[in-house]
Design goal:
By secondary structure, this protein is mainly beta. Helices cover 5% and strands 46% of the residues.
């Protein structure tokens, strides 16, 4: 009898232990066995990662029993993007998001998945530390960016002779829809690459996500890149094109320029339809004073 009581107590405790609801997962895959909710987990970066102050591609998975239609990513409680599953019929997808952190220190990345029924699953998160032990950039009162390091380098890294032309462009098929960007870049540690970031910002301060492209090196520390806006999309009709340049040096450190906003950008309006007026010959009747009636045949 005593053995039977102990056996039932053991089974009861085991069942209770299996009924704990899943919570906020810290970076990693949670068990999918018997779980009907959509699931998401972060593949990169790993939890408690220390990353340089550089753009980073976040990679995460979403899955659901029937189909996973969308993934959502937020950083520090701010929604960054919702990304559709490129293959809606699949119940497992790998999604990617290019993150350009704007501050150093601790950040929390959270992701979650949405199933075909519209329900969202629990979040999975990862804690990362950006820029620890690398240079940080501090805005001054005149909105320029200064480099803070320990120890201070003898020659300061940064940009000079920035130019972007033309000063007014369209996005879409209208021309001009290309912007030529150039600047001189210097870094005493040696430059690995220079990346150009750009976005559209309207008069209310709302903006699109940053897009980026590597700049082409030239002579005399000159770097250049032509931004093609033919396939650029935006919910805003007009605004300014924000441009920021970033140096990645050979010490895996990053130096940012100020944000340049000297190019105006507007949507390319296309007519709904085109028509052509047929040219016809119209007789011209001279209006000359005369006593003789003019007969028109």
């Amino acid at each position: 009898m005593k053995k039977n009581i102990l056996y039932f107590l053991f089974v009861f405790v085991f069942l209770l232990a299996g009924c704990n609801p899943p919570g906020d997962n810290q970076s990693g895959t949670s068990s999918l066995i018997g779980n009907t909710q959509p699931q998401a987990w972060i593949d990169a970066p790993l939890n408690e990662s220390h990353l340089p102050f550089l753009p980073y591609e976040i990679v995460f998975h979403i899955t659901a029993q029937q189909s996973a239609v969308m993934g959502e990513i937020s950083i520090d409680e701010v929604l960054m993007d919702t990304i559709e599953n490129p293959d809606p019929a699949s119940n497992l997808a790998t999604l990617r998001y290019m993150w350009a952190p704007d501050t150093a220190g601790k950040h929390i990345i959270r992701v979650r998945a949405q199933g075909s029924d519209g329900a969202w699953g629990n979040t999975s998160s990862a804690v990362v530390y950006i820029g620890e032990g690398t240079p940080t950039l501090t805005p001054t009162e005149d909105s320029t960016m200064i480099l803070t390091t320990t120890p201070t380098p003898t020659t300061q890294a940064g940009f000079s002779n920035f130019s972007a032309s033309p000063g007014s462009v369209y996005y879409g098929n209208c021309t001009p829809n290309q912007v030529r960007v150039s600047a001189q870049a210097s870094d005493p540690a040696g430059i690995t690459t220079v990346v150009l970031f750009y976005r559209m910002r309207n008069a209310n301060g709302k903006s699109t996500d940053w897009q980026n492209a590597a700049m082409n090196p030239g002579s005399d520390d000159q770097y250049s890149k032509t931004i093609d806006l033919g396939n650029f999309t935006s919910p805003y009709n007009n605004g300014t094109l924000d441009i920021q340049l970033v140096i990645q040096n050979k010490n895996n450190e990053m130096v940012r320029s100020e944000v340049y906003s000297q190019v105006d950008i507007a949507v390319c309006w296309q007519p709904l339809f085109e028509f052509e007026i047929e040219k016809t010959s119209i007789p011209i009747i001279p209006l000359i004073p005369t006593k003789t009636p003019i007969i028109i045949k």
